[in-house]
Amino acid sequence: MSKSKSAISATAFERVATGLVEALERGTEAWPLPTPPVQDPDFPAVQPISPHELFEAGLGLLNIDRGMFEHHLNTVVDTIVPYRMNLTDDPFEVHGRWLTKRMDDVADRLLFCIATDWLAQAFDPHAPNTDRWWLSIALLNGLSTKPYGQPVHQGYHLVESIALAERPGTWHTSPEPGPQQMDWNPHAVLPRLSSSLVVHDQGVVAARWMLERLENGGDDRRLLLMEWVRLLLERPSLVEPLQLQPMLLRRALDPNPEVATKVAFCLAKAIEADRDFGHELAMTLHGREDVLVQRAMADVLTRLFRRLGDAVVPLLDDMLASDDESVLAAASATVGDLKFLDMEAWADRLKSLTSHPLSVVRRNLIPNLREYVEHDPADERGILHDLWKDGDEVVRTRLRELLLRMEEVAPDSFAKRIQALHNEGVDLEPLWEPLRLRRPERCDEWLAWLRDGGQQPTVQERPVHTSTGEAPDSLPNVDDALDVLDQELGFLD
After folding, report:
1. What pTM value is reported for the model?
2. What's the chain's average pLDDT?
3. Do residues 393 and 360 touch, judged by C-beta distance below 8 A?
4. Over the stretch 370-426, which tens digit does the pLDDT of each residue have?
5. pLDDT at position 461, please?
């Protein structure tokens, strides 16, 4: 072992030993610990007498099995060190100072590796080690203290393994083999069970015990709980055994609005699992007056529309009447989802928002205008008219491109729009300027029609080139081709 590796290993071992004792102390505050899900009938589990017994056993195993520690240290270092151009370099030498500054992260990862290793031994199907069970469950409980980093991802994996009573470290499910794999059978007609999960009765009890510890803990532990629940909802077979639905309802009323915000991000999967429950959960969150919760509900409004349909319309109307700019911005951006339910109601919402005092709300209407023109070419509600009169530069720029396209394909509708604006004395120069650059003759025709009347310009028919399949005798001049692109298609603008 190199000198640099020895120094880093010694420092990491000291940090891990200290962190192990502290985590076991926190993890054994809830005593007694749950019964091991997997036991050998010839060797029944013996409940530890006191938490101090676990402290001594954990430190003893850490000191005895130094090879396990070194193995996990090498794995962690290879995982977190930056990318090395020369793969033959020793990371302990090249990145020694970098690792020293991040020793807390290294120790945290090592502790979760140790917990995973002990839990895998506890769930050994041939020789389950119940002594490792007490250590692993207490260590997991003690390490689950923050809603980010390793407690989220590694912690969730361990809780899922406990609920299934399966060894962690590998995927509990595997995708069905595809045609590119050797075990693929194109003639298979029996349902494959490779993607299904079978919960373990005692494992579910232990997993619920772990979730209850987090729910009854501080703010950070409850935030971590919601991160776990959001991931557990991806496993439909675990929702009911772990009693996630009542837990979500309780956390929706959590005194900390950040926890309730995390619940809002679980709504989509909760609705897919049970529509009625998801609707109840959404209404519970919607009834809260916390600004953070209202913003979170506005962010997930599109997902709710796709799953609850008409039931979300009252929520949208309430959000559009909010005083918070963030809520208004997110809700107005979701108005377009109404067109999949009721086109007339959607158009009416657009009309009501054209005069909204907040500019971001009016700007969010722009992506809906193309569909609106297709739905109502005559613009009976005057939405295009009102938005152009608004004077907002962003709105006018986007609307100008829409009107220029309308001038090309639907001159009659374009004529009605500009005639109404012209009669009210609205400045149309921002519209004529790009049209004058692209097609000056066309611009002059429209200006003459507005000024003097006469025949309205119609759709210009452009000749379509038909290939003869033969090479031309001579190539066109480049300047002539650029003039065509500029005048006819407006490419150079």
Report:
1. 0.82
2. 87
3. no
4. 898 888 887 888 888 888 887 678 888 888 888 888 888 888 888 888 888 888 878
5. 60
